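As a warm-up, study this chain.
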Amino acid sequence: MHTAMIGLGRMGRNMASRLLRGGHALAAYNRTPARAEELKRDEGAAVAYSLQEVVSLLQPPRVVWLMLPAGEVVDAHLRELLPELEEGDVVVDGGNTHYREDRRRAEAAAEYGVGYLDAGTSGGVWGLEYGYCLMAGGERWCFELAEPVLAALAPEEGYMHCGPTGAGHFVKMVHNAIEYGMMQAYAEGFELIQASEYADSVDYSALSGLWNRGSVIRSWLLELAEGAFARDPQLASIRGYVEDSGEGRWSVQQAVDTGVNAPVIALSLMQRFRSRQEDTFADRVLAALRREFGGHGVAPRDKGNG
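Now compare it with the structure written out below.
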C-alpha cells in the first residue's frame, strides 16, 4: 500500500522503518529533511520535501499517517495537507491527541471527501522490534482501507477498531492512565523495601525478575525495571523528576466530568506533580520506567546528591 509517514521523531522514525520492512511503499516527511534522507539512505523510503510532495509521491487511495505532537502542530499540517488529498484518501493521527479534537478534524477532512482515523499508539521505543499496539477510531471504511498499514505496524492481534471517531484516542488515554497507576504501585513497593532494614540485602534487578516468574504482579514493566536496576542498582544517575504527557490529566478530567471514581489514577498524577519538588527513590523508579519503555528523557542527578 502507498503510505506516508509525517513526523519522524522517536516513534515516527521506527514506525516508518517497520512499514518499509513490511513491504509498504513509503513517502517520508519531516520538518527537518535530514531524518527523511537518512531513512531513504538506510531503508529506501521516498523523501518528500513538502506536504504537497507527500501527496504526489503516493498513488490513491492514500494512507497518510501523522506522528506529530498533539495540538496546533496537527491542525497546521492538516490545513495544508487536506486540500491536496483526493476523495477516498485517509489521514491517520497516531499521536497523543485528545479525543474531542478528533471529531472536529474528522469533520474538516470530510469536507474534502477524505477519511480520518484516530489511532492510539502504544509500544514506545520497543515497537520497531515487537510491534505497536494500535487502537483505532473512525468510520469503518477508513479502518478497512488503513488495515494493511495497521497490520504491518502491529504484532499479531495487536490492533483493533474501537468504534467511531475519537474512540481510538479515548481508549489510548485510558490505557495511559492505567499505566500511571501501575507504575506508581511498583514505585511505591520498591520505595517500601528501600526504606526497610532489608534494603542492603535485596537485589532489585533480581527481585524484578523473580516477580515475573509466576507472580500475579508479573508484567512487561517489571522486565523493564529488571534491566534498569541491572544497569544502575540504586538508580543513582537519574533524578526522580517525572513528567506527564497529558493523558493522565485528561483521564482525571474525564473522571470528574462523568462522575467516575478513579482515585488511583488521580493520585498517580498528583505524585508526578510532587516529584518535581523533591527527589525520592520511588520517583527515580518512575523516571527509569518511562525511560525504559518510551525513551523519555530523564533528569540527571547532581553529583552531590547521594
